Amino acid sequence: MAKKIWITAAVTGAVHTPSLSPYLPITPEEIIEDAVKAYEAGAAVVHVHARDPKTGKPISDVKVMEKIVSGIKKRCNVIICVTTGGAIGMSLADRLAPIPALKPELASLNAGSINFVLSPMASTVQKNGAKHDWEIPYLEGTYDMIFPNTFYTFENYCTTMNEYQTRPELEVYDVAMINNIAYFLNKGVLKKPPYIQFVLGILGGLPATVEHLSYMVKYAKEQIGDFFWSCAAAGRYQFPLTATALAMGGNVRVGLEDNLYLGPGVLAKSSGEQVTRIKEIAERMGFESASPDEVRDEMGLKGKDNTGF
Ligand code: KMH
Ligand code: ZN
Questions:
Q1: Contact status, residue 88 vs residue 145, Cβ threshold 8 Å
Q2: CA 280, CA 260: separation in Å to the nearest integer?
Q3: Which residues crowd ion ligand 2, with CB under 5 Å?
Q4: Per-residue pLDDT tens for 85-137?
Q5: Using CA atoms, how far apart are residues 162 and 65, in angstroms rounded to an integer?
Q6: Residue ranges lining ligand 1, Cβ < 6 Å
Q7: Which residues lie closer than 8 Å to 148 by C-beta, 6 or more apart?
Q8: Which of 39, 185, 226, 264 counts the most CB atoms within 10 A of its CB?
Q9: Model confidence over 39-80: pLDDT tens digits?
Q10: Of all helices (H) and strands (E), which one includes residue 38?
Q11: How far is Cα 195 from Cα 189, in angstroms, rounded to an integer?
């Protein structure tokens, strides 16, 4: 029986701003709706961020995050992966706050610091006309900011997640972060086998090429041994690289956090449309997609009734 593939939908993120697409979910209700539609299209996991309902600016408000995750949980059985990456410029404490408060089954843990540069999108916001005055400074500000994830942060976030049986989804943007993961596995901070999300194509991280993905997976096998993994890629690289990941036996992440388009010049109306697309590709390759409970069983997640929401 071929392994079933796990589809994750990253529904809103903190990369894109409202003027880049009218379909980017902003309010809790829109984020919930997009997550449920992604589940209905075949996603086993949704990855969520919170935004200011009025301005769409990424925020670290735990109450808004609670509204989002409770709303999703009420409507479907999907696994919810809460971000601890938040947005560039957020404090480390604010980014971590949803874990003790909401005790999710799964949460992102960024495995190292990088430049996370979003400024090239500012010109598109300018061209489209900025709906909100925070958008252009937010994007341009990333030109001179670091996305901080020190070893101290890694250990602090990981031990906090361990305390609440929240499984870390390790976000890896570059090769050296694989060594960081090996270090914390050897230190006994990170539990085996880890779950790695290779995120390619971020300006400041490794570019999204087949060679880079295959090298990262190979290097991780040498440094870490056994691990679960998935691949996400930014923008136009989303489908080529997630299709490559499928061919390599990996899992996949799509969603409007990573890519606003369904194809060249065609905006995706929801993350669910991208889920449908990658599911079709997977099925053409002979893969079935796993249900949330099948992913829970494989990964040993604590179950949706054991969260704090
Ligand atoms: N928005 C990026 C700064 C995560 O969710 O942990 C970080 C991010 C990764 O989205
Ligand atoms: Zn994210």
A1: yes
A2: 19
A3: 13, 83, 85
A4: 999 999 999 999 999 999 999 999 999 999 999 999 999 999 999 999 999 99
A5: 20
A6: 13-15, 83-85, 87-88, 108, 110, 116, 147, 171
A7: 92, 113
A8: 39
A9: 999 999 999 999 999 999 999 999 999 999 999 999 999 999
A10: helix 28-41
A11: 14
Residue 239 in any domain: the answer is: yes
Going by C-alpha positions, the residue among 136, 40, 166, 142 that lies closest to residue 89 is 142
Strands (E), the chain: 7-10, 45-48, 50-51, 58-59, 79-82, 106-110, 114-115, 146-147, 167-172, 195-200, 228-233, 251-254, 261-263, 266-267
Strand partners, 147: 114
Cβ-based burial of 214 (10 A; exposed 0-12, middle 13-18, buried ≥19): middle
Range of the domain at 292: 7-114+148-306
**CATH at residue 170:** 3.20.20.70
Nearest atom of ligand 1 to the alpha carbon of 83: 5
| Dist. CA 160–CA 95, nearest whole Å | 12
Q: Which two structure tokens, joined as six digits, stand for 90?
A: 């957020």
The CA 86 to ligand 1 mean position distance, Å, reads 5
How remote is the CA of residue 291 from the centroid of ligand 1, in Å?
A: 25
Kindly report the protein residue whose alpha carbon is nearest to atom 8 of ligand 1: 85
User: Does residue 235 lie within any of the structural domains?
Assistant: yes
Nearest CA to ligand 1 atom 4: 85
> Could you give the count of Cα atoms lying within 13 Å of 186 in the half-sphere of its Cβ?
9
